[in-house]
């Protein structure tokens, strides 16, 4: 398990860094693939809820959101979602004449659009900033080192569970280790990127907080349906949602903090 986890990281991290710095279509296509795989994993989790859904419709909506952002047409995303709600409801209620759990079905599809696609699509907005490549690397470093330190510290010294009903393996000690690891990583990256270290530290603390909450939310989803991992595509890590769960909330928070509060970091 640990060997697979380390091997996946050794191969994946350098590749991701290269893609981030190259940017452009390579970055966009990679993110789109992550979003579509994450969409499949999300509905794979939810299928145990015995709620029918339109996987193909959600694939189309969840692909169009990053496409619109990539081409600079993000102002049309709300309109896109409204149209999807209309046609999804129309198809289920009037064409298929299936009103059983209609609200739950449409709500699940819309939630996946926000939770998986829109939230992760903020990476495109971050990459578009003047210091975009450095900021994406900074965000990945903060969240993933938070995850790693939380995992190893919790495994070694974890005693006090955060919430045994949601995730029995997550502990207060692990969370503290995550904060220390993520914040230290932020300071190291900030130093080499010539960022204001105080701003980077404050940014990291806020992002780590939301990242750990996102991790717990993802665990709650899986716990509800009796799954340990969202997928198996990443050996030692599970699925895309298992590796990116902290970034689902971390990316939007990171972006809006840069835009509205820590503006000098955006370049």
What's the layout of helices and strands?
Blueprint: H1 2-22, H2 24-46, H3 55-70, H4 77-95, H5 102-120, H6 122-127, H7 132-157, E1 161-163, E2 167-171, H8 172-192, H9 197-225, H10 240-260
Antiparallel strand pairs: 1-2
Helix pairs in contact: 1-2, 2-3, 2-5, 3-4, 3-5, 4-5, 5-10, 7-8, 7-9, 7-10, 8-9, 9-10
Q: How would you sum up this structure in a few lines?
A:
This protein has 267 residues and is mostly helical.
Instruction: Please bin the fraction of helical residues.
Output: over 70%
* Main pleated sheet: 2 strands, antiparallel
Total separate domains = 1
On the 0 to 100 scale, the average pLDDT is 87
Structural class, judged by helices and strands? mainly alpha
- Unreliable stretches covering 5 or more consecutive residues: none
Net shape: globular
**Span between N and C termini?**
40 Å
Order of helices and strands: HHHHHHHEEHHH
Total helical segments: 10
């Amino acid at each position: 398990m640990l060997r697979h986890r380390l091997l996946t990281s050794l191969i994946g991290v350098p590749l991701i860094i290269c893609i981030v710095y190259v940017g452009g279509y390579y970055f966009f296509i990679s993110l789109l693939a992550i979003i579509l795989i994450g969409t499949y994993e999300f509905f794979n989790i939810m299928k145990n809820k015995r709620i029918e859904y339109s996987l193909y419709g959600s694939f189309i909506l969840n692909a169009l959101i990053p496409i619109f952002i990539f081409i600079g047409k993000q102002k049309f995303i709300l309109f896109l979602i409204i149209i999807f709600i209309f046609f999804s409801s129309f198809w289920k209620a009037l064409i298929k004449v299936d009103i059983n759990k209609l609200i739950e079905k449409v709500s699940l599809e819309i939630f996946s659009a926000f939770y998986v696609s829109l939230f992760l699509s903020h990476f495109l907005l971050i990459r578009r900033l003047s210091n975009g490549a450095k900021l994406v690397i900074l965000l990945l470093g903060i969240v993933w080192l938070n995850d790693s330190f939380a995992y190893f510290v919790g495994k070694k010294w974890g005693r006090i569970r955060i919430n045994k009903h949601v995730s029995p393996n997550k502990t207060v000690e692990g969370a503290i280790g995550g904060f220390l690891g993520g914040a230290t990583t932020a300071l190291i990256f900030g130093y080499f990127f010539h960022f204001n270290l105080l701003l980077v530290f404050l940014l990291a603390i806020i992002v780590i907080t939301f990242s750990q909450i996102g991790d717990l939310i993802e665990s709650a989803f899986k716990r509800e349906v009796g799954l340990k991992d969202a997928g198996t595509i990443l050996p030692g890590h599970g699925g895309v949602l298992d590796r990116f769960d902290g970034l689902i909330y971390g990316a939007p928070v990171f972006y809006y903090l840069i835009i509205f509060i820590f503006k000098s970091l955006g370049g």
